[in-house]
Every structure is written in C-alpha cells, then in structure tokens.
Amino acid sequence: MSTAVLAAPFQAVFDANSQEFSLVGVIRPRSVDEIAHSITEFRRAIDEARGVLYINVKRLAQMNNTAFHAFSRVVLDACRTRSDIRFVVVTSSVVGWTERMFRHLGKIEPQITVEVYDSKFYPGQSFVEDTSFIPILRAQTKMTWRHERTILPRHGMRPGIAMADICCGIGDFAVLAQKEFQPARIVALDHSKPSLAYAREVAAEFGVTGIEYTYGDASEMLLEDNQFDFVTCRHSLQIFNQPELLLKELYRIVKPGGRVYITNEKNSHCLGEPRAQSIQWTYNELARLLSHFEMDVELGPKGRRYLADAGFDDILVESFMITNLDGDPQDFADVIAGWEKMFAAMAARHGEAPEFIDRFRQGFRDHIFAALHPKGYAGWPIWAASGRKPL
Ligand SMILES: C[S@@+](CC[C@H](N)C(=O)[O-])C[C@H]1O[C@@H](n2cnc3c(N)ncnc32)[C@H](O)[C@@H]1O
C-alpha cells in the first residue's frame, strides 16, 4: 500500500434501499465490545434484507482477526437460520487481502459468494488499462500540455498546494505539473497496473521524487476526505460508465474552497482539411461505437452540468483546439495513429463488419493526411472545466 493511501476512520453503514452493508476504513478492535454497535447494525441489516444482502468491503483498508471473526460469526449463523437469503461480499483488487479473507466464508457456506467489483468495471476497461495504451497517453499529453500549462493557473493550480491527479494514466501530467508549478504534494492515482509501473519507472529513471503513485479505484478511493487544494481528472470521466460516481469522490477528497479540474473531449468535433467528410464520418462513428462500451466521448461540453450536479460552484469552462500547427505535425499524426489502432480493435470487438472497419480506419488516415499536408489543418478539441467545493 502506498503512503498516499490514508485510511478513513471506521464506519459500518447499512443502506436499506440497496440492501448494502458497508464496512469502510480501519477496523482493529482490541475486543469485540469495541465494535458491538457495528455488529448490532449488521444483524439489523440481515433481519431487514430480503433475497440478497451485499456486504461492501471495497474501502475496508484494514481489519484484524477479532473483527473478522465477529462479523463472520454473524453471517455464518445467519446462513443456518435464513436459507432464504444470499450474501454477496463485494471486494476490490485495491484491497486484495479482503478477497482472500472472505473467500474462506464461501467455502464454508455456499450462500456466501465473493465478487471482485473492479475486475471488470465497464466494457472498455481492458482497452484503457492495457500496455498498448501507454504510447497514446504519452503522445496526447505532449500535445495537450502546451495549452494546459497556461490554462491551469486560472483553475486553481499554484505553487505549494496539495494536489491529486486522479486517473493519472502514465503519470506524465503529474511530472509536468511538478516541474512547472512546484506543488508541495502530488498524489497520482490510477487503476492500470501497467501504466503505474511505467510511471514509476520513468520517475526513477529521471530522478523525479515526491509523486505518490497510487493504485486505486477512482470511484472508491482510500484517500481521506478534504485533503487536497486541487484535484485533476483528465480525459477520464468520458471513459467511465458512471462519471457522477467519480465526481462524488473528487468532491469528497478536495478541501472546501479547493477546486476540481476536469478535461474531456467531444470526438465528433474532431476535424480536418482536406478530406473533411471522411474524417467527420469516422469521428461521428467513433462516438457511436464507444457508447456501446459505455463511454461518452462527447462529454466535453457537458462538464459544466456534471460539476454543477455534483455540488460545485464558481464553475469555469473553456475549450481549446489541439492542432497540427501547434508544434511538430508528426506529434499530431502519432496521436491519431494510436487512436486508429485502438479504436479499430474496439470496432472489431464490437463485431463491426470488415467493410465498416476499413472505412472507419480510413477517416483516421485522412486525419493524419490533413495533419501532415503542407497546406492542411487538423484539429482535436478539448473542454477544460473546473468547479470550487463550497466553503
Ligand atoms: C483516457 S486515460 C487518461 C489518463 C491521463 N489522465 C491522461 O490524460 O493521460 C483514462 C485513465 O483512467 C484510468 N481509469 C479508468 N477507470 C479507473 C478507475 N475506476 N479508477 C482509477 N483509474 C481508472 C485508466 O487506467 C486510464 O489510465
């Protein structure tokens, strides 16, 4: 576990609507008496539940044997008296020990099953957590940083702050932010083990210290409430099937008065000249294709609404266009070549016909053609938005 993973105080909460009993934080009682109240709450949850009772341990940072045995005793007893009820323990790979520990109960009583929630969050997850995504992320950040470095101070970035980059990918944004703005603390969290391994390797190679790379699930973070002045989450709400869950967590960890900064795209607004029609067709189809993977790559302009609905005020929204004229046009071409490969694989996974995939790929190639053409113009628009957590 990383030093950045700070355990929340222990909580045992029953939500009758979703029939979910959640254990959160660090639970290390010296005797069962210390957790008598939580055990009573657990018994009440079982009494009230019909059909299935979910036992959510996704944010259970630590549990000692005293607590484990006390809760296990209650659930095992219930299996004997309540044949009408099933228990589903929902764990997360972020707290991998819980899966091993609770699996034993399933071996004793078939009424108890264990599910690892984040082994498959959403249909497109495997694509964004794969090593083949690394060069795409690297090329993208190279292009976006030129714009973001001037935008960020308007949204709350400044020296000396505590910041978190949630869904940090390969961590290159955190490195650039550290060099340019010298925050006092940076936590960079992602759910892709290959991306984090890459980030740590690059940091070691270039002597970058002070960035706390953390494995975690952005929708269930083990980070404490109200601890960051500035929280960034770039290009990620749009690939997550429940962006509002992520925003709830971003809101939770930012300090009152602090700001959350998000960037997202609207892929159907990617453009190029010449060959505009072919390019337009492909990006329209891309938005449609990704919706089948529960990703909303049209989310950019919706950022204002998402931030407002999550409770933020003083919302700022701006957009910028990455173009082939920003620097070396080959950088732009590299980004699009990466997209072509990844999105063609997703189209094949979705079962699109070979003729469709050929035409789909052609639009990306035409975008590259426009980017590298001596008189061409190619663009990729991005929306940056931030909101303040009310004091
Ligand atoms: C499109 S990438 C953006 C990465 C980075 N912010 C950037 O702009 O280069 C989305 C990132 O979200 C991560 N991710 C997806 N679901 C996540 C989750 N539930 N918790 C943490 N990270 C997640 C993926 O592993 C991936 O690195």
UniProtKB/TrEMBL annotation:
It holds the Pfam family Methyltransf_11. Signal peptide: none annotated. The keyword Cytoplasm does not apply. Keywords: Methyltransferase, Transferase. InterPro entries: Methyltransf_11, SAM-dependent_MTases_sf. The keyword Transferase applies. GO terms for biological process: methylation. GO terms for molecular function: S-adenosylmethionine-dependent methyltransferase activity. It comes from the Bacteria. Residues 165-262 form the Methyltransferase type domain. This is Methyltransferase domain-containing protein. It comes from Sinorhizobium terangae.
